[in-house]
UniProtKB/TrEMBL annotation:
Name this protein carries in UniProt: Porin
Keyword Transmembrane: yes
Topological category with respect to the lipid bilayer: Multi-pass membrane protein
Keyword Repeat: no
Domain Porin span(s) in chain numbering: 11-291
Main localization, broad class: membrane
Compartment(s) where it occurs, according to its Swiss-Prot or TrEMBL record: Cell outer membrane
Keywords: Cell outer membrane, Ion transport, Membrane, Porin, Signal, Transmembrane, Transmembrane beta strand, Transport
Signal peptide start-end: 1-22
Source taxon at top rank: Bacteria
InterPro entries noted in UniProt: Gram-neg_bact_OMP, Gram_neg_porin_domain, Porin_dom_sf, Porin_Gram-ve, Porin_Neis
Assembly notes: Homotrimer.
Length: 308
């Protein structure tokens, strides 16, 4: 714990130093806590849960007209106090890189481009219905180099290389082609096609699309994965829908995971958000997972999210 706080203190001091050198630095974060009734398969219980709450420092420093240094140091903070001793603060995306006419190169700890390709289709990211609970591929990897081209007619290519990091290790790659704006503010449609090769022992493929139709925001992801060591395969589909009216956003999504041998898993979630301000929302959701070979799971929650 002391080392974690020391690391953050060092980060703050480094940020202040960079500010003096004319770097453009932002301090940002998110506090997300929910009160919920949870059933992981062994019976229900109540809990207060911190849902990927975080704090971070990010910014840039322009070297000349064609070259800029970019950096980020982000930490997850467990605000519910349930983490193990010394693990209440953990690393998230942390990197430094260069940006220019050639695109952008980042080196450090980062989400693979396949993970990034989901955009905002997963309407319950960081909660119990997060797509990572049924699928592989939601990987934040250390020892990475990520390159993204500049956008051309809305298209952008991204590649993540994961270094072996040891004599017995295996390197891996993640590749994605993006189209449009994931926030759907600069384009009417967002789409992506992504592939992982031997990332955390899996070959994975994903196709993602999202757009707005008659007041609804509709999205879908097709997912396929194969465990490299065993050859076991799984195919999955996620469909999400959101409808906003005044300060309310009504949301629903379903997700499937069909494994070799008939081990089928599925989940559905319904929920609602109420926006108190641009920075703050109240929310509620209900999630159910139906597991062929395991116990079913249920989650009912209400929470608050504050971004700064």
């Amino acid at each position: 714990m002391k080392r974690s706080y020391s690391a953050i203190a060092a980060g703050i001091l480094a940020t202040c130093s960079m500010s003096l050198m004319a770097a453009d630095v932002d301090i940002y974060g998110k506090a997300n806590l929910s009160a919920q009734s949870s059933d992981d398969g062994d019976g229900s219980y109540t809990e207060i849960k911190s849902n990927a709450s975080r704090i971070g420092f990010k910014g840039s420093h322009q070297i000349d007209n064609d070259l800029t240094v970019v950096f980020k140091a982000e930490f997850q903070v467990d605000l519910d106090g349930d983490s193990e001793k010394g693990k209440s603060i953990t690393d998230r995306n942390q990197y430094v890189g260069l940006k220019g006419n050639f695109g952008e190169v980042l080196i450090g700890n980062n989400d693979t481009v396949l993970k990034q390709s989901q955009g905002k289709v997963d309407l319950f990211s960081d909660l119990n219905a997060d797509i990572k609970h049924l699928w592989k591929g939601e990987n934040r990897m250390s020892d990475t180099i990520t390159y993204k081209t500049k956008k051309f007619n809305g298209f952008q290519l991204g590649v993540t290389y994961v270094a072996e990091d040891s004599v017995d290790g295996e390197d891996a790659t993640s590749v994605a082609l993006f189209y449009g704006d994931k926030a759907l503010k600069k384009s009417k449609v967002y789409a992506a096609l992504a592939f992982d090769s031997e990332v955390k022992g899996y070959d994975t493929a994903r196709a993602t699309v999202q757009g707005k139709v008659a007041g609804f925001t509709l999205g879908a992801i097709y997912h396929s994965q194969e465990e490299v060591s065993s050859g076991k395969e799984m195919d999955g589909l996620l469909i999400s829908a959101k409808y906003s009216i005044n300060n309310w956003a009504l949301k629903a999504q379903v997700q499937t995971a069909d494994h070799d041998g008939g081990d089928d898993k599925s989940g559905f979630t319904v929920g609602a958000d109420y926006k108190l301000a641009k920075s703050t929302k109240l929310y509620t959701f209900y999630t159910n997972f139906d597991m062929d070979s395991g116990a079913d799971q249920d989650y009912l929650a209400a929470g608050i999210e504050y971004k700064f």
